[in-house]
Amino acid sequence: MPIANLILFAAEAVGYFTIMVTLLHFRHRIGLGVFLTALGVMHFMETYLAAVFYVQLPFGVVSPGSSIFFAGKLMMILMLYLEEDAAVVRQPIYGLFLGNILTVGVAWILQLHEAIEPVPGKAADVNFLKEMGWLMVWGTALLYIDSLGIILLYERLGRVIQRWLVLRFMISGLVLLTFDQIGFFMALRYFVGVPTEVFWGGWKAKMIAVCIYTLLFAIYHFYIRRHGATLSQRSISDVFDDLTFRERYNDLLARTGRDMLTGAFDRSRMELEAPQLIRESLRKGAPISVLILDADHFKDVNDRFGHLQGDEVLKAIAARLGQMLRSGDRLFRFGGEEFVIVSPGTGHYDGLLLAERLRWAIASSVNNPDGTMVSVSIGVASAGDDGASFAAVLAVADSRLYEAKKNGRNCVFGHAGRVQAV
């Protein structure tokens, strides 16, 4: 019987992973909400099974609810982070936490009713509902900590084993599910009174589950995701698409993502695209740099010649930058006279060279209305050494721009300080 249970254990893990990854992979066709709903709807079952349903495996007593489905949920959350971002990850966690608190609150209110039994022997067990509600609240609080921990650990490991994505995936799961097993067992011990041997059996089962999920993740990452991306991006036509086509079309017209004055991408487009470019480069182990550029003394240009003439200078700067950049680079107007450039495939040294070429090109070809030279200051930062997110890298680049301005303007600053003209 333990061997048969072990075979079922592995089959359940494979089945769970296959279904959930399919929903995640095709999220652009069927909507991310399908994946998130499937992830959340099983939370009650996971908690219920963890409290009352156990099987004997060769290495101990195990609950599939905790060892397979909850462990699978945490690994799915890490995959969701890898495919999307942390802002998306927080949605199911916050939803589960608030929903479980609501469950406890509803259970307390329901016991104020004078209930009847239309079917003899089928009375509602409100105490059970409250008990499960508190277990789910505790489990979701742990899930919140687990999710933060597994993402942060995965990113930290990237500094040491950046190219070994599968190994980072496995280590992160092993560590955080060990922590989760300790935390959730304490609640089970308090609410249900489960014996100590359940802790060790559950921990071993979670470690095995992580290994199974890691193997499946490797298969998905190297053989399915790379070759199935085009299919997953295609939209399907159904009644909901038909009903919302006009709204989507109007929304597209309203959000072209272009700055009307300079033709560069605007800030909202930057906030959508730039983090994705950083994540993709870090995931592939490829370099990427961020440049922030500011026109020197631009307020004086507006004060002396007027805002219309100042606008012409900004357009000339943007046009010159556009001529100098590669097709894969992204130019965004950050605000006022500031521009941000995201350059995939560009390491820090090459980013400094690019910044110096841009500075020289503008100084030699863009003039103020009175014919004087326009100069710019540029700060350069690179993903990896200067941060693991776009916000972090941009903040470093901005601080280096500030240093460039403090040091006389019309220069480039990187991690080693001022760059000499080349």
What does this molecule look like?
The chain has 422 residues and is of the alpha+beta class. The protein folds into 2 domains: 2-233, no CATH class; 267-419, Alpha-Beta Plaits. 68% of the residues lie in helices and 9% in strands. The chain has 15 helices and 8 strands. The protein has helices spanning 2-25, 27-30, 32-41, 43-52, 64-83, 86-110, 126-157, 165-191, 196-233, 239-254, 267-284, 298-305, 307-324, 348-365, 390-406, and strands spanning 55-57, 60-62, 288-295, 330-335, 338-344, 376-382, 412-414, 417-419. The strands form 2 sheets. The chain has a 6-stranded mixed sheet, sandwiched between helices. The chain has a two-stranded antiparallel sheet with strand order 1-2. The chain is elongated. The protein starts with a helix and ends with a strand. Residues 229-240 have low confidence and may be disordered.
Strands of the widest sheet, in order across it, are 4-5-3-6-7-8
Mean pLDDT: 84
Work out the helicity level.
Answer: 55-70%
What percent of residues are in strands? 5-15%
Order of helices and strands: HHHHEEHHHHHHHEHHEEHEHEE
Number of domains: 2
